[in-house]
Amino acid sequence: GEDVEQSLFLSVREGDSSVINCTYTDSSSTYLYWYKQEPGAGLQLLTYIFSNMDMKQDQRLTVLLNKKDKHLSLRIADTQTGDSAIYFCAEKGGSYIPTFGRGTSLIVHP
Amino acid sequence: DTGVSQDPRHKITKRGQNVTFRCDPISEHNRLYWYRQTLGQGPEFLTYFQNEAQLEKSRLLSDRFSAERPKGSFSTLEIQRTEQGDSAMYLCASSPGQGNNQPQHFGDGTRLSIL
């Protein structure tokens, strides 16, 4: 079955850039998503990219997609303490149901 | 902001009791999804509705679980004879009905604790 892998933790200093990585196995993936989850809350959609794109930029967020290596990354520029949360990568192929990774816990320290 | 709304936010109950959760999707969204999330995991798919039709169910959805969306608007998820292993966050999401490229929008979830 499909699998989405993420590293579990990332620690950065406030003001630095954060890069969260994700790999997936489904070669038919057509849409890839990044969600943010804060404690006690649901998942907030941050951004998404179609598989025919290599990059998408949205303010402080940059998504890079390497379809050949099935690798997706999310770069957060000028990381702030409010960015501390769990970030989920998800991929969707032909079905309506995305597959989620286990999430990367981003810790931003002063 | 009329996002996805879930009720209750928290539910504590004794093992063996029945519980029911409600989800109100974004009003123009035809598709509605239920997920379960346990600590340290991403959301795991449970079931999916297109309007009032339940189109897909995960193997995670045992016979004790039932979901309905009677009028194609709000949905309920019922768990009968709850077990310790049912303790989790239950998330609802919705998306528009056009095409397959629309992302899902999540509610804040119902956290279920089984004593």
Rg of Cα set of chain B = 13 Å
Percent range of helical residues of chain B: under 10%
Instruction: Give the beta-strand count of chain A.
Output: 11
Q: Give the C-alpha Rg of chain A.
A: 13 Å
- β-strand amount of chain A: over 45%
Specify the biggest β-sheet of chain B.
7 strands, mixed
Order of helices and strands of chain A: EEEEEEEEEEE
Number of helices of chain B: 0
Mean pLDDT of chain B: 93
Q: What oligomeric arrangement do these chains adopt?
A: heterodimer
Largest sheet of chain A: 6 strands, mixed
Number of helices of chain A: 0
Termini separation of chain A: 41 Å
Written description of the protein model:
- The complex is a heterodimer of chains A (110) and B (115).
- With 110 residues, chain A is mostly beta strands.
- Chain A has no helices and 11 strands.
- In chain A, 0% of the residues lie in helices and 56% in strands.
- In chain A, the strands form 2 sheets. In chain A, strands 2, 4, 5, 9, 10 and 11 form a 6-stranded mixed β-sheet that branches.
- In chain A, a hairpin with a 2-residue loop joins strand 6 and strand 7.
- In chain A, 35% of the residues are buried.
- Chain B is built from no helices and 11 strands.
- Chain B has strands at residues 5-7, 10-13, 19-24, 31-37, 44-50, 53-57, 65-68, 75-79, 88-95, 105-106, 110-114.
- In chain B, strands 2, 4, 5, 6, 9, 10 and 11 form a 7-stranded mixed β-sheet that branches. A 4-stranded antiparallel β-sheet of chain B has the order 1-3-8-7, with no helix packed on it.
- In chain B, a hairpin with a 6-residue loop joins strand 7 (65-68) and strand 8.
- Chain B is globular, with a radius of gyration of 13 Å.
- Chain B starts with a strand and ends with a strand.
- The mean pLDDT of chain B is 93.
- The A-B interface holds A 4, 8, 30-31, 33, 35, 40-45, 48, 50, 88, 90, 92, 94-98, 100-103 and B 4, 6, 31, 33, 40-45, 48, 56, 91, 93, 95, 100-101, 103-109, 111.
